[in-house]
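Let's practice the habit of predicting before peeking. Look at the sequence and jot down your guess about where helices and strands might fall. Then scroll down.
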Amino acid sequence: MVNYLPQSLVQTLGIVHPLLQAPMAGASNPDLVAAVSNAGGLGGLGAAGMRPEQLSVAVRAIADRTDAPFNVNLFHPSTENYDTAAMAAPQLAQQLQNYHDEYELGEVPEPVPLFGPAAEQLQVLLEARVPVISFHFGVDAGTVANIHAAGAKVLCSATTLAEAVQLQTAGVDAVIAQGSEAGGHRGTFLGDYKSGLTGSMALVPRLVDALEVPVIAAGGIMDARGMVASFALGAAAVQMGTVFLGCPETALAPPWDAALQAAEAEDTCVTSTLSGKPARGIRNRYINDLESADTPLLPYPAQYAVSRVLRQATASAGSSDFMALWAGQGVGLYSNLPAAERVEQLIADANKLIRKMSQPQ
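Done guessing? Here is the structure:
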């Protein structure tokens, strides 16, 4: 079969298809990462919340499952800044305690650091010779140089042209254009997140025209139509997240899977109520209650940390009311399919669509 898909970034990353599986911290795992990489895409592990020792085990597990390149994603070290003196406003504290009382969970736990240490995490990746390392919330030139010296490639997400230009100056190998449709945390690191809520259709070609490095389209891409549209805009590859949540390798919590099955684009929102940073997920009781209360939130990641017991307990009980149901706006096209079959289907359908579009009508 003739391959009509872009090849420049494929060659740079050493993969077969211009398709990256979004790292998705909290959802991706070695089985999913290896399955996508073995199928010719670039599997991605979201490692920001892993302690260095856990990360080391996970990287070894991926390497045991695949000889193909894979990606591990970290957050910028600045996201670790943690205000140990931060206290919940009285209204928020009472609301959280009411939830704990409802489910007989005892006292609301004190917030604890959840992410990093980034320097130690990165050292694990460098020592393990992880082939691709990506970042969210920015990356500096010194870090990029250290990773390149170790023989790895560097990717980073951008939500605005200014961010993309800064990343190119820092030396990244490609920029991930995170459109506003994308699920999970907004990657904005320059200015207010609202300035970075440009949709992929507008963001991707702007970055393609302005940058010399390849651009990877991300946000709301769920099938071959989204892939081909991204390539038409000039993207060298696509990064897809929500579509891979439906793979059995992800072993998604049943309430999350059920919420994804039932959701449409309008059921998602960008909110800070879950973690303290803006992120896109499916609305649920927790988001609606806290937004209605209009009470000050704890800073990131304390806001995320105080609900950890509540999230775990209610999810185990089969409820999605308090979970972080990360999802992009393409969620209406969500379905369950093994990762290798998903990659094969996406690539085959994209080639067929391009071939069909190129034929005289």
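How did you do? The chain has a mean pLDDT of 96.
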